[in-house]
Every structure is written in structure tokens, then in C-alpha cells.
Amino acid sequence: MSVYKKIQQAKVDLQDRDIQKTGSTKHYNYFELDDFMPHVKEIFLDLGLFSRVSFDEKEATLTIIDVDNPEEKVKYKSPMESASLPNCHPIQNLGAVETYQRRFLY
After folding, report:
1. pTM of the entire structure?
2. What distance in Å separates the CA atoms of residue 106 and residue 98, rounded to the nearest whole number?
3. 87-104: b or e for each residue (b if 16 or more CB lie within 10 Å)?
4. Cα angle value 74/34/103 (rounded, 5°)
5. What is the bridge-based pairing of β-strands 59-66 and 73-79?
6. CA quadruple 77, 20, 91, 81: dihedral positive or negative?
7. Chain-centre distance for alpha carbon 47
8. Among 5, 9, 36, 55, fewest CB within 10 Å belongs to which?
9. Are 82 and 97 in contact (CB under 8 A)?
10. Using CA atoms, how far apart are residues 24 and 35, in angstroms rounded to an integer?
């Protein structure tokens, strides 16, 4: 099975799970990483996929690798932005950016 077919199967398997959104603001509800990452990890393990998120100054990248054929990989990219959360230290803003990027990439 190709890496593309495995990723598509992972998407179908994930949509078949009853995952609830636990994040919320005044205006909307959203998925936290903890809502879906345990499911993603189980599905990826079953399908033979490995994922890695990396960051540089310009973009965040999610790389999904077929563990049975490591040369087969798919990359998803997103441009980096900054965060300016009130009353936060720079490292907290960096953590916020990286957390948002992980969630959006998956």
C-alpha cells in the first residue's frame, strides 16, 4: 500500500471515531491536540506511518513517512507567524505558535 493510500485510510479511520472538541472560545469550539493526537498515533501505528513536525523561520512542516518504505513521504507546509498573547513571555508565545501549527498541520 502506498503512503498516499495509507494517509487516505488514516483520514477515513479518524473520521469514523467520535472525537469531541474540548477547546472553546466565546465564539466557537475547536479541537485541542489532546482530542485527536492519541487517535492519530494509534491509527498511524496500525497503518505503518510515522509523523514528524518541524519548524524553521519561514514555515512549519508535517512530514508523514511510510515506515515500510521510508523513501515514501508526504509533506504538508504552513507559513510561520508570530503570536502576541497578553501577559506572556516570548517562550510562551513561541509555544503558542508551535501548538497552533501542529494542530493546523494535522
Report:
1. 0.87
2. 12
3. eeeeeeeeeebeeebbbe
4. 40
5. antiparallel
6. positive
7. 17
8. 5
9. yes
10. 12
Among left, alpha and beta (phi > 0; psi -120 to 50; other), residue 87 is left
Q: What is the mean pLDDT of residues 16-43?
A: 95
CB 13 within 8 A of CB 5: no
The residue assigned the cell 491536540 is: 33
C-alpha to C-alpha distance for 38 and 59, rounded to whole angstroms: 25
> In this predicted model, what pLDDT tens digit does every residue of 36-70 receive, in sequence order?
999 999 999 999 999 999 999 999 999 999 999 99
- Those residues with Cβ within 8 angstroms of residue 41's Cβ, 6 or more apart along the chain or in another chain: none
How many CA atoms are closer than 13 Å to the CA of 85, on its beta-carbon side?
11
Q: What is the DSSP string of 37-84?
A: HHHHHHHHHHHTEEEEEEE-SSEEEEEEEETTSTT-EEEEEEE-----
Helix (H, G, I), strand (E, B) or coil at 27: coil
Q: How far apart are CA 61 and CA 10, in angstroms?
A: 19
